[in-house]
Specification:
Blueprint lengths: L1 H11 L14 H11 L4 E5 L4 H10 L6 E5 L5 H4 L6 E6 L5 H10 L7 E6 L20 E6 L5 E7 L10 E9 L3 E4 L6 H4 L22 H6 L8 H17 L3
Organism: Exocentrus adspersus
Pfam families: IR75A_N (PF24576)
Protein name: Ionotropic receptor 75a N-terminal domain-containing protein
């Protein structure tokens, strides 16, 4: 029981204690991602068996003074995200403990428009690390892994609504290689258009009508008559209904 309590305290303090395992951090892929996304402030998280390995990565980014290198074995999560700026987060997906990092990050809402995540892996499939991770339709996460000797596949990851019937979604958005760098699908639309199908998601909305009305509730809310009565309440209903039809949630 004492050990379980200690583990719980460590998680609540956002402190990760990880067994060192060498992973995958490719300078060219990371640098290309920064340039493509116009990222000037970044945190790179890897697993380093020695201080020398961490310094080697740091030297590659010495010309990028706004880039910090963190060891996943010793990281305090809140220190990584302590900024109000747009921040690139690069994670070595092959490190032990990366799933725990993602779960804690989701708990603190670090998967939003302010944080641009790049997860690198040499494994063909690490989708399991995103199971039970709290993220939503606005998540900005890309996974890069080798498709062949020279090409890397780029996937996007999101969840339409964690805890509301949504499930983790993955879809291919492009590829990377040393010649073309990042290449994405020709007609790349707004991510909310691509992610608009929220089938299975259930959202709740409350409508209060302070002024008495006659007839059935739904008929009254949909009627165009006397819009000056219960105006904003009826407008809210129609707005939510439009979103429901567009995103296909229930």
């Amino acid at each position: 029981m004492g050990m379980m309590q200690l583990t719980r305290q460590i998680i609540l303090l956002n402190f990760l204690l990880i067994i060192p395992v060498n992973g995958f951090l490719d300078y060219d892929i990371i640098d290309g991602y920064f340039k493509h996304r116009h990222i000037h402030y970044a945190s790179i998280i890897g697993c380093f068996s020695t201080r020398k390995e961490q310094l080697r990565i740091l030297k590659r980014f010495i010309m990028k003074p706004m880039t910090s290198i963190f060891d996943l074995n010793k990281i305090i999560v809140k220190n990584v995200f302590r900024t109000s700026l747009q921040l690139g987060i690069v994670v070595d997906g092959d490190c032990e403990g990366v799933k725990q990092l993602l779960e804690i990050s989701g708990h603190h809402n670090y998967f939003n428009e302010n944080y641009h995540w790049l997860v690198l892996t040499l494994k063909g499939n690490i989708t399991y690390i995103f199971e039970n991770v709290r993220m939503y339709i606005n998540a900005d996460i890309q996974i890069v892994f080798p498709e062949s000797v020279i090409n890397y596949t780029v996937l996007e990851v999101y969840n339409p609504a964690h805890g509301r019937g949504g499930s983790v979604k993955f879809h291919k958005v492009g590829f990377y290689n040393s010649y073309h760098k990042y290449k994405f699908k020709a007609q790349r639309r707004c991510k909310y258009w691509i992610r608009r199908n929220m089938t299975g998601v259930t959202l709740r909305s409350l409508i209060v009508l302070p002024i008495h009305f006659e007839g059935r509730l739904l008929d009254y809310l949909n009627k165009e008559d006397q819009r000056e009565i219960n105006t904003f309440n009826r407008f809210n209903y129609n707005l939510i209904s439009s979103c429901q039809r567009y995103y296909n949630f229930s």
